[in-house]
Amino acid sequence: MKKIFYILSAALLLASCNFLDFDESSSQYSREDMYKTYSNIQKMLTNIYGYMPNKDIADVSSALRDCGSDDAEYADPEASVQRFTNGNWSPLQTVDDKWSLYNGVRSANEFLESIQTVDLSMYQYDVKYQRWLEHLAYYPYQARVLRAYFFFELARRYGDIAMPLTMLTAEEANAIEKTPFDQVIDFIDTECSACAAQLPTTYVGLMDDEIGRVTNGFALAVRAKALLYAASPLHNPSGDKAKWQKAARAAKDLIDLNQYQLDPAEKANNYLSPEVIMAICRSESQSFERYNFPVRFTEGDRSSMAGTFPTQNLVDAFQTAAGYDITLGANGWQTADPAFDITKPYEGRDPRFARAILANGMPFKGSTIETFVGGKDYSATRSELGTATGYYLRRYIQESTSFTPENTVTNKHQWIVYRYAEALLSFAEAANEAFGPADASLGLSALDAINQVRANAGMPDVEASDAAAFREAVRREWRVEFAFEDHRFWDVRRWNIGQDVMGQIDGVEIVKSGANLSYSRKVVETRTWSSKMNLYPIPQAEVFNNPNLTQNTGW
Fold first, then answer.
1. pLDDT reported for residue 28
2. Among 171, 273, 309, 333, which one has the highest count of C-beta atoms within 10 angstroms of its own C-beta?
3. Out of 1.10.510, 3.40.1000, 1.25.40, 1.20.120, which CATH number does the structure's domain 200-283+415-458 have?
4. What is the dihedral of CA 52, 53, 54, 59, to 10 degrees?
5. Distance CA 472, CA 428 (A)
6. Tell me, which fold does domain 1-55+100-182 have in CATH?
């Protein structure tokens, strides 16, 4: 049987309270002790995996980063995630502060230095000895890719970053200078390419059949993602086509592995899907459902404002099943689709809609969602613990989770880090900017790539005639294909479109009169946006510690 590789919390192992250095003597084990046995070496590598960032905001239970985009609103108006959108954000009041990823970088650097001198020859007569050596041969490459991934996560937040490749003393940590963003990406490109050549595509048949470890596919995925960001308008304002070409080729390298395939089934919480390249597997929990179920299904187990609520802005991005746009305007639902029934606006939509969003009239847990005024899931105010937008979250929800006292059910969750559809859309976006939508000089055209993703979802082909029209089509595709998979928040920034989309978010108000329903658009929140928000502020404490870490522009 395949074994899931569960990532432990880094706090359970050798974690540090500092970011760029730590005192190994504070542990009950010395560094030498930790590298004397295979099991301890394995724990040291697992510790590095433990720093992989979540999709939510660490200090706000259940708040997906999408709440900091135009795709969602968080229930609690005072939660720290609201700083992304109300302007109350600064180097002293940070949100999603991942400067702590330097703990992961430090752990990787320590591991890479220590494993060079590992000697397990005293166990050479153990029946597991040869298997241990086979495993250890992959460990440094896993650690190097994880370190590159941490650098990417830091760089997409902060831009230019410190990039230590060795363990630092406190003095060195407080003097290290920033590495320019493009040089960080160049390192990730080179490092992931080198490691991909040494890593297996799967660990089935290796490493005790564990799933969830770094493969050559994930190494190429990190590389492709980093190069796509480097080519995007935020970091490539001149539109340098060479950067787009490089990003397109990197995505094509991943596609050409021929190891992954699109999956018409749901990928969320499905680590066995042939589309999933990397997922983080978490242990059993009810917390995500506690805060995101419509409140009546929590059986009184939720007492505070919480939950990620999709916006009408996002709903408008989902076309009809025939590929026509449909929006909720001042005069109700508007679409050019002659076959669409506007009295049933949530039926006959792009099938991905029902996988991401719970809307009025949809079935759920043997009941029907009622978000019309006075319905079972309607909320006039946030304090009633219902939806602020008229919609509930569906993505990642484990519907079988139960809070019924006599029959509680708890489920595991698997958060997708990267799946094959992302490689196709990365290629589609980059190839369009580099060569145009129909050019197939790399063996695949941008149109072919995007239409593979759409066909997998049961949607008709895109027929964009020029690069500008295709650009709009692929940006829509990113939004609907990856709704609530931690993309939109970052896409708004890398495309530098915050000033266009972040000003206002809307919801829906539904009024029932007899058997008839009327729909009207309502303003949920007016938001604050500034171009400085494309990058995070560096925590002020770090700037105080190291003056070479100059603050990002505008902060």
1. 65
2. 309
3. 1.25.40
4. 130
5. 12
6. 1.25.40
Mean pLDDT value across residues 109-125: 94
Give every CB contact of residue 262 below 8 A, 6+ residues apart in sequence: 275, 420, 421, 424, 452, 453, 456
Q: Of 318, 315, 291, which Cα lies nearest the Cα of 398?
A: 291
The domain 287-409+483-555 is placed in CATH, from the list 1.10.3470.10, 1.25.40.390, 3.30.565.10, 3.30.750.24, at 1.25.40.390
Q: Which two tokens stand for residue 12?
A: 């359970």
Whether 3 has a pLDDT exceeding 50, the answer reads no
DSSP, collapsed to helix, strand or coil, labels residue 528 as: coil
Tokens of 66: 């999408």
Question: Is pLDDT above 60 for 210?
Answer: yes
CA distance 135 to 148: 21
Tell me the per-residue pLDDT of 215-253, one tens digit each, with 9 for 90 and over: 999 999 999 999 999 999 999 999 999 999 999 999 999
Q: 38-66 pLDDT, tens per residue?
A: 999 999 999 999 999 877 665 455 689 99
Query: How many other C-beta atoms lie within 10 A of the C-beta of residue 190?
Result: 12
DSSP string, 94-118: -SS--TTHHHHHHHHHHHHHHGGG-
The structure tokens listed for 157 are: 């937040």
| 97 compared with 517, residue with greater pLDDT | 517
Q: What is the pLDDT of residue 23?
A: 43
CATH 1.25.40.390 residue ranges of the chain are: 287-409+483-555
> In this structure, what are the phi and psi dihedrals at residue 225, rounded to the nearest 5 degrees?
-65, -45
Quick one: pLDDT at residue 30? 77
